[in-house]
Amino acid sequence: MTEHSGLSEVYRLLGEPQAGGVLVVADHASSRVPDDIALGIAPDLLREHIAVDIGVAGVAERMVRPGTAAFLANVSRLVCDFNRDPDAPGIFPETSDGYPIPGNVLSAAARAARLERFFDPYHTALAAMLEANPPALILSLHSFTPRLASDPAQTRPWQVGVLYNEDDRAARIAIPLLEAEGLVVGDQHPYSGKVLNATMNRHAEALGRPYLGIEIRQDQIGTDEGEALWAERLSAIAATVTLQLV
């Protein structure tokens, strides 16, 4: 595995982006909080789903190979949620799944400074990468918790969800492929891509680029074995989707 362009404060790029290849994008792949930012939460919460998409970094790293690169967030979603519009309240969440995040109660100036430091360079770098090496498919990779602390009675039976907004070209190909693996697949579950799709709206839908939004339930990828299984599964599905999109 080769890492290019060094380790940015806001993202990691693994592999070599290729025109006509696959780019995996993971907006919530890190739990890292810079030393000069105090969120005011218990340290163990940084290991929970409110801070990071558990398992996603391991899956993305294992997917990297010739023709597939990975662009991974390098700060926690609590520091900056890259999968939000810049004016969205939740971009610096003041609460998450019932937990207060006092360090995210920001003045207008502090909010602007954090956008400039994290959000802007992340999306500028991703836009430049996609422009320089237009992929055949963007794979937007997330994970979701089996159970919310704020709503423990809610059931989430789906092992994987496929999300999209208006462009469902890749989703319509991928859903039956995932179902053929014997999986319980959520079409627009546990969230709807018409509501939570900011990064793909910006970099894919707005420019007509094909993308596939994938949400894996975290207990599926909580071990090395699970990460490896899903990396191979998604690599194969991405290859099939790419061929059928052409």
TrEMBL record:
Protein name per the record: Putative N-formylglutamate amidohydrolase
Lineage top rank: taxon: Bacteria
GO molecular function: hydrolase activity
Alphabetically ordered keywords of this record: Hydrolase
One Pfam assignment: FGase
Biological source species: Novosphingobium chloroacetimidivorans
